[in-house]
TrEMBL record:
<keyword id="KW-1133">Transmembrane helix</keyword>
<keyword id="KW-0472">Membrane</keyword>
<dbReference type="GO" id="GO:0005886">
    <property type="term" value="C:plasma membrane"/>
</dbReference>
<feature type="domain" description="Major facilitator superfamily (MFS) profile">
    <location>
        <begin position="1"/>
        <end position="195"/>
    </location>
</feature>
<feature type="transmembrane region" description="Helical">
    <location>
        <begin position="165"/>
        <end position="185"/>
    </location>
</feature>
<protein>
    <submittedName>
        <fullName>Major Facilitator Superfamily protein</fullName>
    </submittedName>
</protein>
<dbReference type="InterPro" id="IPR036259">
    <property type="entry name" value="MFS_trans_sf"/>
</dbReference>
<dbReference type="InterPro" id="IPR020846">
    <property type="entry name" value="MFS_dom"/>
</dbReference>
<feature type="transmembrane region" description="Helical">
    <location>
        <begin position="45"/>
        <end position="66"/>
    </location>
</feature>
<dbReference type="Pfam" id="PF07690">
    <property type="entry name" value="MFS_1"/>
</dbReference>
<dbReference type="GO" id="GO:0046943">
    <property type="term" value="F:carboxylic acid transmembrane transporter activity"/>
</dbReference>
<dbReference type="InterPro" id="IPR011701">
    <property type="entry name" value="MFS"/>
</dbReference>
<keyword id="KW-0812">Transmembrane</keyword>
<feature type="transmembrane region" description="Helical">
    <location>
        <begin position="75"/>
        <end position="100"/>
    </location>
</feature>
Length: 195
């Protein structure tokens, strides 16, 4: 796998985070509407957002530590698996505590992804390309945020989806993106340096 392929993998993985953050921010109003979402309070939406961030921080620390001990490829797959399971489960949330727990676990998967991809960049990308690849990977956040904002305009349109379904589809799309990334992850090099 070349440095550009690694950059593409990292950009795809990093677009999951802003997509998640933007979608939840845009869906907050829908989630608080009685009969249309989970009927969360504004405080509960804030708690879910805080738990996502807490999960991302703890996931980054835990999976970053484990990446050095178990290897990048295993941890890429583990963090992506956690993300896929948690974001899919979020789409099927039935009460506030389940929703908050799934947001925490989603954040942990995304935080672990950040740690694993940056470890891979440091180890696998030659010094002459490292800054470019790192900038491409870490600078892609805003592209994902734009995609998330565009998607929520469609998903919250009552002409396309009923009010109690659109927000669930939004989380399902995160899982679909994660599955695409999973296919790319299968080709991640194990212990070989990129030339």
């Amino acid at each position: 796998m070349g440095a550009l392929a690694l950059a593409g993998l990292g950009r795809a993985g990093h677009r999951v985070d802003p997509l998640e953050v933007t979608i939840v921010g845009a869906l907050a109003e829908r989630l608080t509407e009685p009969g249309r979402g989970l009927a969360l309070t504004d405080s509960e939406v804030g708690l879910a957002a805080s738990m996502y961030v807490a999960g991302a921080v703890l996931g980054s620390l835990l999976f970053g530590y484990l990446t050095d001990r178990l290897g990048r490829k295993k941890l890429f797959l583990a963090t992506l698996g956690l993300y896929l399971a948690a974001t899919t489960a979020t789409a099927f949330s039935f009460d506030v505590w389940f929703f908050v727990l799934m947001r925490f676990l989603t954040g942990a998967g995304v935080g672990g992804e950040y740690a694993a991809i940056n470890s891979a960049i440091d180890e696998l990308v030659p010094a002459r390309l490292r800054a470019t690849v790192s900038l491409a990977v870490n600078g892609s956040y805003w592209g994902g945020a734009a995609v998330g904002a565009a998607l929520t305009r469609l998903l919250l349109d009552p002409a396309m989806f009923s009010a109690d379904v659109g927000w669930r589809v939004a989380f399902g799309l995160g899982a679909v993106l994660g599955l695409v990334i999973l296919l790319v992850h299968r080709h991640l090099p194990g212990q070989h340096r990129i030339r």
